[in-house]
Write a structure and sequence with these properties.
Layout: H1 9-30, H2 35-38, E1 48-50, H3 60-63, E2 73-79, H4 83-89, E3 96-101, E4 106-111, E5 114-119, E6 127-129, E7 138-142, E8 155-160, E9 164-173, E10 182-185, E11 191-194, E12 200-205, E13 211-215, E14 220-225, E15 236-240, E16 261-267, E17 272-277, E18 282-286, E19 295-300, H5 302-312, E20 324-329, E21 340-344, E22 349-353, E23 367-372, E24 389-396, E25 399-407, E26 410-417, E27 430-437, E28 440-445, H6 464-467, E29 474-480, E30 483-489, H7 492-503, H8 509-531, H9 536-549, E31 554-556, H10 582-603, E32 657-659, H11 662-679, E33 684-687, E34 697-700, H12 704-723, H13 725-732, H14 739-749, H15 760-786, H16 789-794, H17 798-806, H18 809-815, H19 817-830, H20 835-848, H21 855-872, H22 876-892, H23 899-908, H24 912-926, H25 931-937, H26 945-970, H27 1000-1012, H28 1017-1029, H29 1035-1038, H30 1046-1056, H31 1060-1076, H32 1080-1092, H33 1100-1116, H34 1125-1152, H35 1158-1169, H36 1174-1182, H37 1188-1197, H38 1203-1220, H39 1226-1244, H40 1253-1267, H41 1273-1281, H42 1285-1297, H43 1301-1306, H44 1309-1322, H45 1329-1352, H46 1355-1358, ...
Parallel strand pairs: 1-23
Antiparallel strand pairs: 2-30, 3-4, 4-5, 5-6, 7-8, 8-9, 9-10, 9-11, 12-13, 13-14, 14-15, 16-17, 17-18, 18-19, 20-21, 21-22, 22-23, 24-25, 25-26, 26-27, 28-29, 29-30, 31-32, 33-34
Helix pairs in contact: 1-11, 1-15, 1-18, 7-8, 8-9, 8-11, 12-15, 18-19, 20-21, 21-22, 22-24, 23-24, 24-26, 25-26, 26-28, 30-31, 31-32, 32-33, 33-34, 34-35, 34-36, 34-37, 36-37, 37-38, 38-40, 39-41, 42-44, 44-47, 45-47
Length: about 1400
Amino acid sequence: MSIQIPAASSVVENLENAGRLIDQHIKADQSFWELSGQLSIATHQTANASGNTDRDYPAVQSYWPALESMPFLGEVNCTPLPPELVQAFENMQCNCAVGLMPLVSRAWLTIDSTIYIWSYEDGKDLAYFDGLNEVILTAGLLKPKEGVFQEHIEYLLCLTTPVEIVVLGVSFTDSPSDPYSEMHLQPEPLFNLPSDNVNMLSVVGSPEGRIFLAGKDGCLYEVVYQAEDGWFTSKCRKVNHSVSRLSFLVPSFLTFSEDPLLQIVIDGSRHILYTRSQSGTIQVYDLGPDGQSLSRVDSIQLGSMVQRACYAARSMDQSLFKPIVHMAVIPMSDSSTLHLMAVTQAGVRFYFTTTPNGIPGRPSMLAMVHVRLPPGHSPSSTIPKLGGTVHQSFYRRGALLLSSAIMEDRDQLWIIDPDMFPFQPILIETVISRPLEGRTWAIAEAIQPGDLEAVASLASLPPSVVTQHVRPPRRFILLTTQGCYVITRLRPVDQLRALLESSKGTASDAVQSFFALHKEVQACAMALILATSPNKQLAFWATDAFFKYGGEPHIVFPGSSGMYPPGVGGGLATSTPMTPSAQFQQQQQQQQQQQQQQQQQQQQYSTPVQGQTPSSLPHPYSSSMQMSTPGSYGNVGSLQGSAGSSGALGRAVMGPEVVLSGKHDGLCRYLARLLRPLWNEQVAVFYKPPGDMQAEQVVSAYASEELSAFMEQLYSLKCFIDTNSHLLSASLARPGASPANIHQRVLSYMRPEGMVTTSPSQVQTTLLDKYKADAQPITMETDIVNMSFLFVAEGLSQQERQQLVATTFRTLIVSSRPLISSVISALLNRYAGDTSMTESLSSRLLEVAPSLYSQDDAIASKARELVTVARTIQNREEQLQRLKESVMYYSKVVSRINLPSVCELCRDLKFYSGVVELALCAAGAKDRKNLAVHFYKSGQPQQDVNGQTAYIERQRCYSIVTSTLQQLLVEEQPAKRPSSVPAQPGPPSPTVERQQLSDPREEFDELLALCLRSDDELFHVTLYSWMITAPVNLTDRLVQVRTSYIEPFLKHMVASQQQQQDILLFLNLLWRYYEKNKNYSAAAKILDQLANIQSPNITLDQRVEYISRAVMCAKSCNLATSGSAIGEFLHELEDKMEVARIQLNIVEAIKALRPQTANTRAAVEMLTKELMDISKLYGDFADPFQLSECKLSIIHCATHYDPILVESLWTEIIDKELALTKKQSVENQMQSMYSKLIQLGQVYIHSERFFPLEHIISVLEKYSCQQHWRVDFVYTTLHKVGVSIQTLFDIYNRLFKSKLPFWQMVHQPLSIIYSLHCYYRDNHSLIPAYERSAFKAMVLDAISVYLVELHTATPSVAGDLQMKFRQLQTQIQGLYMDKDR
């Protein structure tokens, strides 16, 4: 089954607008400043400093006193050490070490040779390992390499002692609630290596499974392991990366180092390793692009750092800058240009980069570029300085934790993070301090497995305010001598919750100040998180705060400074970071000015005023544009603003502009944040099963649990909108505040063109449409994933599967309705045949996705079921009945189905009438106003867009029918039915009907006849066009069609064609159609038109054939009389026919000329292009090329009688023929002349004026005497032509009497005459009986004359002729004697 989802234009427009709105708010959340931009870093060659002003570490209560009671930390839990550990301390002899394993929620403690591991959450699940004999120095939980160990080994535990390095396997008991609920240490070590008497002080693993160790000798070591032993390598070995391969040649006392390595950190995002030594030297190693290699890059000593720090912060004591107690990587998600941070004992932070000017690439250096002073170093700061010395530190995702010793058994914890002030152009951090009981041993952050926000497409993590609706509060773990502290850092939304609960509602300055602190948009988005929570009381308070403090729409007029209203969005003034010199400051200001100009040109935004940055303004250090120019950190623009504002606030405007309220933008922002993890992500991905790498399956990119979590949040937002729709409408429609009223106020000042008034109902409709568009596809996919996405995807075509993989959720929601319909169809097709399951699916789809699956779709599903049932029926009559019912249902919803798919089902079941019915029904439904027919009859004008669209849609429907016809047409004859043996003796089973194999030709004829019975004119046009272009010639069938559409079609095609070849094609079809239908008059006229068309595509032979057929058609008319019009046309055609034949003879004659020249070839080309009149043929071709025979035929056709011209043409003909055989034998000459005379004589024998017999005989006899031809050659040849003996006697007698000089010279006439008389004697029976006596007397009289002539002639002339004539006279006298008697 196939389902199509049409959408109303208004809904589609709303979805498009809402989609663009979501894009804008997602982009606004991504438009945060890069860390290097916030710190104003311009180059790696110098370092600058910050942290010396009140604005770098503001005291919130100083700006908003009402927020003095706002909490920053949640509940602090302290879990004491397990009692077993306390008792174990009593037996400690040599050493103890501690640490945290946040990946598995564990803490560890070593006491001498035993390691204890327990859960820091509750102090339970204590495990230990005491299989070593030496003191354990350090331990590390590591990720193993893939494919080396068995699957149950999830982690490795590396233990180091003074003499060995031991690697243990770690596994966990599976638990649905906690994957790390119960930990198991393998009793037998996986690897055991000697340490060569080097104490390892730190163990760190890389994401690729490599194990690195920090040696007390100052060397970096690695435990290299693999699954099996190699040819030249062992299964596990220790490698020293701090010495060269030739180090064995150097005595050991010369390589001794007194600078132990204390710390190793690895940047998994860049594959870089850093080491810190006891003296403060930091080294950087490149692990290669894939993390599988290692090479030392650079190092920096503490003295160099202190020197550069003193230069950057000259007013500070250098004791602040040493020693270094901790270093932490800054991953790419935090900064693209800053790579490492180090913390000193005084809490000063050093920032480093490993590439020149932050250019992306492999590390090539290590340079300190910024110094961040700790809190309390501003002259007027109200924040206290860090007390004591920092001995433990931790950094992750912008949060810095410092533990300083204020007493021997008490520490002070400092938490410094920027979460309260996101989207600021400078780094503004809050400072939180808290005393701790005991001495801090280790600090880490609890990591939540399966975080819903883990989206790989985000190159940079946004501020926590963007993800706080899905991320739980951050929890930090501190392992102290008193136990494990779990400290929760409250999110801004948690702080709002605390303020609402403490105030018992919104009637407090604290809540209002909170909205002022975070700006209306951000605060409203946070309020929505609480308003959609299951806590009804809290949701009520949050909803009240949303509407109470969400602001109102307002207008920004020209000349306005763009400042926020008092108390809303004023924010904190920005600080100016310290720079090492005035020259650098001037250079930075120039860079800022240049960047501002570029932003004004590219974005057409004006520079924001001091203290504000609109969310629409792209920050130069956002995740999408982290550096302004290659090779630099990027020029820091105007260090102003906050992304909390929207619209035109914070920027100058050219005209009055409407700025929507924080409620509107906050609602949009929250919806955008809900959708952000899915919005630009793929719906599905290709997956290759491990067992079959060749197979490629399409699977969902998200698990059903993840999609269900999204749906819960979207549903909660929908409930909020539905519940508070009256408040939303009232808020938007408030007098003087609604967008419509605002536009009216603006119009009083200025009336810009194209301004659209947006009503409150339109805003609400857009939001509801957006929710439905977002929620229904996600709900649908959740159900599909639960029912096996893989099998549903298999029901899609290959193109649809590729499209599904390439489709993002945004595209699916906004503009992929056809793809959604295909997925629904595949889902229903998956369970086709299961009626109960199909009905259940239909009900479910109608419930969760009514805009995607309507009642019409249910009808289509019913039709699909009928087709499925029909497949199983063997009785043809019953099968056809089901198919007819199915087509009836399909016809009701023909605009909602996938027509090609449904027609394919009918085709498979050989239900071709259903194909035609559905296709024509769909065509009519797509063009109910017959725009396509008008478009076709109007010549298909390009400006008729609606008609063209309708025409294309109808053609797509018709093509299904024509493709079915073509399939039947080219299908081979069915094979013989295979023989089969019945299951049992006897007659066939009555329940099974023996179906005869059908003949495709018969099916084609039936289907064609069905198509021709249609009353759809445009379908007939398509059908006829297909018959012309079909792979098998169907033009004979076409001209036999008997419909009212065929003749208009052919005429239209003749008139509308541009190519002459196409015109000829349809003219040929038209005359054939007329001839088949006995409209001979019309056929003759079309044939005459074809014969006279000037075209190189028609040969002269074809033109002659056209004229000939036209003559035949004209003669076939009932009115073919000379007096009628058709009679006159017939005479005209006959004349054209005669002239055409002459033209054909001229062509052949010119082609026979030798040699062929350019003139002859040009003449032939001209003669074949068109039919010419007889004068042109004579003057332009026959006469110039001396074509005597053609000239004779021309004057004969024109009845132009000129005796002299005729005789001269015959002379030329005889001369040319004789010239052709001049060098041949006498017999060949006579044969050639004989053939020519026979050919021409048959043409002109009955036209005495154009067949001058006496002249011809005279010329021939003269040549006969000259060439010594037979005496009887001439008259016998002419007699064969048809000249009677009487005529020959008469002509020869006149020739004799003419006494021409030529005859007297050759002495031949009497010999010729004698021969002629002998011929008469031998063929006297050829004389008609009624002429014999008279002709006999005439012959005898002539002989008497000849005898007298011979009697007077000389003996040499007379010779034997006299005697021969007398004998001949006697013989002739004896002729006819019997009959005379």
